[in-house]
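If you are new to this repository, start here. Below is one unmodified record pulled from the training split, so you can see the exact layout before writing a loader.
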Amino acid sequence: MSPVIILTVIAAVIYAGILISIPFRIKKIENLIGELKIRLESVSVIRIAVIFIVCAGLLSVVPLRSFPTYIAAIFLGVALLGAYIASNEALSVNRAGIYQNGLIFGTEALLYDKIEALPTLAYEKDSETTMVDYSVLQILKKDGGKAELIFSSPDKREEALAAILEACPRLKV
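And here is the target side for that same chain:
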């Protein structure tokens, strides 16, 4: 058996594992996150389905063509990376929102105890600060990472910010 076929079989098993893990990851997050306070806009189910179909197509093309092993590995890696990112986005479909114990948005499910600060709150009311986008809320995570919540309007941001600060008062500056 050629190395490309072996890599393709391994990638297909990992791909199936990614797909199978989605309902279990959703259930785990739902148990941790608590009650919904404010619903946020989420990505389309169609978009995620298309990504999964394209990734499956990439997986299926590799054994049909005579790619060198390293090119096949790159194609398979891209397909698995795309499937993993889409699976993270699938967690927020129809679940994106501000919850009692955390936030779900984009590819993130973030509990309040993993949030270090909301840095924009420290400087956005300062008169010397200019060019503040009041439809974006920056989040600094305790692991050093950053995330951004982007809202359709400053009013939606203020509503969501009020719900976050109500649920987690320690984030107030």
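Two things worth knowing about this chain: The mean pLDDT is 89. The longest strand covers residues 136-141.
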